[in-house]
Amino acid sequence: MAICINCDNPAQPDADYCAPCEEKMFKKIGGWLYLPALGLLATLVINAWSAFYALKMLLDNYAWFSGEVRGVLITELLLFSGLFLLALYVSSLFIRKKRQLPRFYIGMLLYGLAVLCADLWLGYHYLDMPLSYENVAPLGRTLISLFIWIPYFIVSVRVKRTFVN
Prior knowledge:
With 165 residues, the chain is mainly α. The protein is 73% helix and 0% strand.
């Protein structure tokens, strides 16, 4: 029989902890969940900056931009602001360890992919930006992130035991 690595009591079958220690360990954020927490923080910062930058460009150069460029900037401002607000809500679910977090986190990831695709399409279609490696590489990174975190939030035992409120 295995011994709990925390208190030297008999451990649960196929586990490193006894029942009381396991319950205590899964109550807090730990393991791989630190990476989504950092991702949420990065999403908040990046989208706040992107929305601010789009607003600044729009206000500083409104008279100089054509209608298409204004439309692209207004659309980007709305999309980045929406993603910022969604990330803020998902962060509150994460901090409060709410049961709804996995669904909203996956929705935020998918919305982020949609924003990135819309941004690429708008730039290509209206601003004549080429679809070069520099412009498309974030899409590849986002897809890799989706392929990692969506299954993790669906299958992970730690997620199921941590977000229970």
